[in-house]
Predict the 3D structure of the following.
Amino acid sequence: MYNIDNIDPKKIYDLIIIGTGPSGLGCAIYAARFALDILIIGNLYGGLITTTHIVENYPGIPSISGPELMEKFRDHINSLDIPYIIDEIRTVKKENNIFELKSFFNSFKAKTICFAMGSNHKKLEIPGEEEFGGRGVSYCATCDGPFYKNKIVAVIGGSDSAAKEALYLTQHAKKVIIIYRKDEIRAEPINKQRVLENDKIEIIYNTNIKEIKGNEKVSSLVLDNNNEIKLDAVFIEIGVLPNSNLAKIIGVQTNEKGEIIINKKSETNIPGVFAVGDVADSQFKQAITGVSEGVIAAYSAFDYLKKKKIIY
Amino acid sequence: MYNIDNIDPKKIYDLIIIGTGPSGLGCAIYAARFALDILIIGNLYGGLITTTHIVENYPGIPSISGPELMEKFRDHINSLDIPYIIDEIRTVKKENNIFELKSFFNSFKAKTICFAMGSNHKKLEIPGEEEFGGRGVSYCATCDGPFYKNKIVAVIGGSDSAAKEALYLTQHAKKVIIIYRKDEIRAEPINKQRVLENDKIEIIYNTNIKEIKGNEKVSSLVLDNNNEIKLDAVFIEIGVLPNSNLAKIIGVQTNEKGEIIINKKSETNIPGVFAVGDVADSQFKQAITGVSEGVIAAYSAFDYLKKKKIIY
């Protein structure tokens, strides 16, 4: 990692990429190959995929853990000597076609920017959720699953991510209860089948939870039918919120979900501003599709700079 | 590989993918995860990328040869037990929303199809080109470069592919002459720089070639200024032609380059027909972007079948 002391605040980069997940790093790899002067800024190295236990759907790599996949990306970044720093951009403005990004202590300038900040886990917003955070309430089975060996845990949600979290948790817990508000889980068929066939998993359909109870730590859940389930932990996996607030500051268009609207070239409505990965409005969000959007954004940034005769 | 004898000609597949390059296999990997009943049909396992000496731009895999990358894809395909056969589809028709694909000896039926047939090398169409094919005229440096150890060879073209072919050839030949019709090569900057800095490479700009001469094998090139260059081999790298003729039979729309027009969902103008990779009209064609298009096509096919209540 590059030290912040090596960053010249007066320098105007060709491209600054905000986000260190697969799509941001995919963008960086190609931008470096295009010989653009780039900087990557992010606050969680590797992005949300590093919380994934097993990735079997990055074509070309049959099976790998999320952290290992991102180590491979880091090797790739390092092989191209690409600078990146850990920092959190708080605001952005555009002046004379130059973008200025500011964190608490630093300021960075660039001719083009790429938003690759991904998304964060949605919260249930019920009593007990915040109180027991880190004490039985978790948004990451891979991170916290091993603490619940032979315990009873719940997964809230019925998406593919929820199914995968539940499957992973069966490796530790003695029982995993999926609680889902609809009448059928909507995981990828391969994962759905694995869930339905797994003896350790029980599914409660058409049900919401009202409250998370406990003392020192989580001890039970109250359902909306007022039934109470005793357990040791609850993993909340009810979707994500795109981290698009920063982009909105300079007028980048978003859809009703808050996702940044991009075209086939990863362009937003503002020239010189690109968006890729989970923060963007692509319907089908996968590591591989985000990486491809990043790659295309690098090409589009290169093309934009060339057409404006800023490079070459 | 599945034997053709195991294929039931009466079976109607959910999805047939035509093409075995990265984009077709990316599509297959996801389609299998969606539990679709699929078949891959192709005539060159791994696609054109298998003729690439070194791939350093598949994010997550810093450096690998084309054939090795496609071995990884094959492992991925095999881990999901996906059937594929080597055959060449000659014609296609649509009847009652079922597509029927025919090769010389076989016939296959599917509810959806994905065109992933990539592209083929363009030819110069000058005297001597066909005559000396395989005897000094080549379209694949990786395949034929090693035959020209300490010889003089030419690369015709100035694209990124041409630059990479030239760089690869310097590992074998004593001299590599790039002949290009424009006044500047248009390779990725990283490769352009490598070419310009390589002592073994000479570039002749603003020049076409008129004829390839030889006896048993290639002995010289005649340029359009009538100069004649003595050499041992000529590698032609002047672009590609998309293999879209099959798609055109059922009215799939193509652009002026013959590429199949797709939207962000990898959909063509015909419902149930998808196209991905080099045969499609994406501006920036890379292995990673083709794979992503394939992945998205699998999702779109799944979505199409679900909405038509053909599956689930």
User: Anything to note?
Assistant: Chain A has seven helices and 17 strands. The longest strand of chain A covers residues 107-115. Chain A has two domains: 4-120+240-307, 123-236. The CA atoms of residues 141 and 165 of chain A lie 6 Å apart.
